[in-house]
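go over whats below:
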Amino acid sequence: MSRFLKMIFVLALIGLAVVQVQAFENTSGLPVIAAADLPKEGRDTLAQIRQGGPHPYTKDGSIFSNRERILPSQPRGYYREYTVKTPGARDRGARRIICGGKQQLSCYYTGDHYASFKIIKE
């Protein structure tokens, strides 16, 4: 392989590494949780969100207003909330995943009904 082609190959690899690093950039200052570390029900809910549903709760997909102002500030309607089933709970429980944007790329997990959040790293 010529020296020129080797240099192009190395630069391409560096470019891929930069793209992968930029794909997850936590500018919120919130703690991070890996998707694999979510409770099983959280991983199931995240998979449902990524597949576009179906969602088992009627409030799933409704606007999350961010009244607590813990998540990064965004216009109303940016965030949507989804219930993470809580085993043994008679109601929706306290666990939620909140996702933002049209493609819902930024997602956050709360296990304590909006008192705290962790950004989900997929």
